[in-house]
Amino acid sequence: MCSGVFMDEKFYVIGGIGGSDSKVLTCGEEYDLKAKTWTEIPNMSPGRTGAAGEPDMPATGEAPPLVAVVNNELYAADYADMEVRKYDKERRLWLTVGRLPERAVSMNGWGLAFRACGDRLIVIGGPRALGEGFIEINAWVPSEGPPQWNLLARKQSGNFVYNCAVMGC
Predict the structure, then answer these.
(1) Cβ neighbours of residue 123 closer than 8 Å, sequence gap 6 or more
(2) Hey, which of 17-26, 64-73, 96-105 has the most confident mean pLDDT?
(3) CB neighbours (10 Å) of residue 34?
């Protein structure tokens, strides 16, 4: 499963599953809208620990890369290590910039949304135990320094949200 973002007037497809053995892809592909060309970018997909690190877990058991773009900078949520990473476009590597909100709980990335909203990154998710839990919305403005998450809203929920889409902000 892959994710897609627009950045620097180009479209990027990051990660995915490919080949006859359904291997998790670590590359990304850049589509230049003006030149109408595709370019493969090695190791553009942020590290994924579930499908890549656990031999018993199928590649489809893990959520697509949790990525978002703010001010033409690519960020990723590493749900396993609870970290936020930023992609260094020149060196083509991921750098850890800080932590995710403490209560951003997921199941192999499912149940956690990571999106851009203007100049902010938004994390939607929350703790769940014994059929009770909360959905929280946290925000951080990357241009203001290392992650300091602000809780915007919290709602009690007895259900697990496997996936959600943020349609606009």
Answers:
(1) 77, 100, 101, 104, 112, 113, 114, 136, 137, 138, 139, 149
(2) 64-73
(3) 7
- Tell me the pTM: 0.85
Nearest alpha carbon to residue 31 among 1, 8, 56, 65: 8
- Whether 50 has a pLDDT exceeding 50, the answer reads no
Q: Identify the three-state secondary structure at position 53.
A: helix
Distances 55 to 8, 24, 42, 45, 78 between C-alpha atoms, Å: 36, 12, 23, 19, 19
Q: Per-residue pLDDT tens for 102-135? A: 876 666 666 788 999 999 999 988 766 666 778 8
In whole angstroms, give the CA distance from residue 113 to residue 115.
6
Task: Output b/e per residue, 98-129; b: 16+ Cβ within 10 A.
Answer: bbbbebbbbebbbbbbbbbeeebbbbbbbebe
Candidates 3.40.640.10, 2.120.10.80, 3.30.9.10, 3.30.2350.10; correct CATH number of 2-157? 2.120.10.80
